Amino acid sequence: MCGRYATTRSAGDLSALFESADDTDGVGPDFNVAPTDPVPLVRLAPEGHRLLSVGRWGLLPPWSRTAASAARMINARAETVATSRAYAPSFARRRCLVPADGWYEWVRRPDGRRQPYFMTPRDGSVLAFAGIWSVWESAGQARLTFSVLTTEALGELAEVHDRMPLLLSPERWASWLGPTEEPAALLAPPDAAQLAGLEIRPVSPAVGDVRNDGPELIRRVGPAGAEAHSEPTLF
Fold it and tell me: Most buried in the list 56, 64, 125, 145, measured by CB within 10 Å?
């Protein structure tokens, strides 16, 4: 966790939601973000204002010799991010917000098949994952890269996976992006109200193929894989 998520809002919508300047050439919807994909993130510009940028998912520290490790660096554990050689410099000085509609996890069913679930706000609001970023240079080209912080899963989310993204409510965006505070305050888990607002939605196994993309991937399905509108039990 977290190895797949969705981010579908336009650059204009994200700029408005996060009160940020747009440094992208426009971003398109991606219902099946996979490691190393380019996606939007929000960081602070040197001048201090918020900036919507495009980064590749999988942080590459400046000392990385090749980009091969990026797919293994998509997540940073909240418990060790402040002390890790790879992540600590970014956690101290280069934190970002990663906009998302929700994230996917898979649960093995009694029949042995794996059922994907999409964790998303019931009210359709945007999520902000806690992220850290870095710039990696190779052959004279600079690449903006990032990782999503994960923490111990809480509440019903623990029935799906033992880890979850560190979710930041809007009240925490400024402190996450701003000057370094005590790690314990920055890394506090989301509150109960934010967790209660999440839906654990069964979705189509088609999301397991990274070549698939489109709104059908986040639609609720029933036990047999057909679209459903009732509220089934988790398992």
Answer: 145
